Amino acid sequence: MTVLGTSDLTVFPLSFGGNVFGWTADRDTSFAVLDAFAAAGGDFVDTADVYSAWAPGNSGGESETILGEWIAARRPSGVVIATKVSKHPEFPGLSAANVRAGAEASLTRLGVDTIDVYYAHAEDDETPLEETVAAFGALVSDGLIRYPAISNFSAENTREWVRLAREQGVAEPIVTQPRYNLVDRAIERDVKPVAEELGLTVVPYSALASGFLTGKYRSTDASGQSSPRAGSAAAYATPDGLAVLSALDDVAAAHDVAPASVALAWLRAKGTVPIASASRVDQVDALIAGATIDLTADEVAALDAASAPFVG
Predict the structure, then answer these.
(1) Is 3 helix (H, G, I), strand (E, B) or coil?
(2) How many other CB atoms sit within 10 Å of the CB of residue 32?
(3) What is the pLDDT of residues 171-214, one digit of tens each?
(4) H or E segment at 248?
(5) Contact indicator for 4, 11 with CB cutoff of 8 Å
(6) pLDDT (tens digit, 9 = 90+) per residue, 154-182?
(7) Which helix (DSSP H) or strand (DSSP E) does residue 195 occupy?
């Protein structure tokens, strides 16, 4: 189990990504994968108010709605729910009014009294950061959320948010959610060190690089692939990307697990709590293995070396 930042939240060391709910996983499938995750000890679920507005026929909020229905049906004990604001078509940006309206809408869809972890989903250049920090602080004071968090924030603005929170005397963020995986290690230069300095847990998204790190995509030609992420995943199948897959294959064979499990275990070895999703029940076991196997120092070093070109 892992403690999130300076909070009292202790979670399973992997978060289930709810971006698939209402997109590549319908309601029944979403229930099934959540049931499998919870049965294996998973208790940390990540979503956002905008999920999955990009899917045909959707308008945003579908993921939260399905998750809320699952919570109502299963009444799980101790599940930690994280969601986000700023990208929903009806609640764009991080103005104080928008942050509160977005939180209230999310609470309704989720059917809960309080959001455990509430993210500012992206920076908003149109709103003073002072206003946003105060708005999140007010949500904590009013009991709508337990802890603020940030996603896709630069190292500079991460530091500034914490400074402003301390200056205003309001709750500080406990988590930062950047893109981070074996083929995208840019945050190691700035965001990750600042997060560690300030006591924020890194909870990275795109942990499997749109599925590339599952090992399924080994050609830049994505034709014939049915997954909506196939094009994004196949783009990583360069010589450098394939070298990472080769290193993953070696470590996966040593542990008798899937490459995806090793990619997640590597992120855990870097002190993070990765987010990963599954659109089928048979994919959940690989996620759980990624949260429970421990890599040796030599294995981490081998993966570091293979993925060195992606530090940037």
Answers:
(1) strand
(2) 17
(3) 999 999 999 999 999 999 999 999 999 999 999 999 999 999 99
(4) helix 239-255
(5) yes
(6) 999 999 999 999 999 999 999 999 999 99
(7) helix 191-198
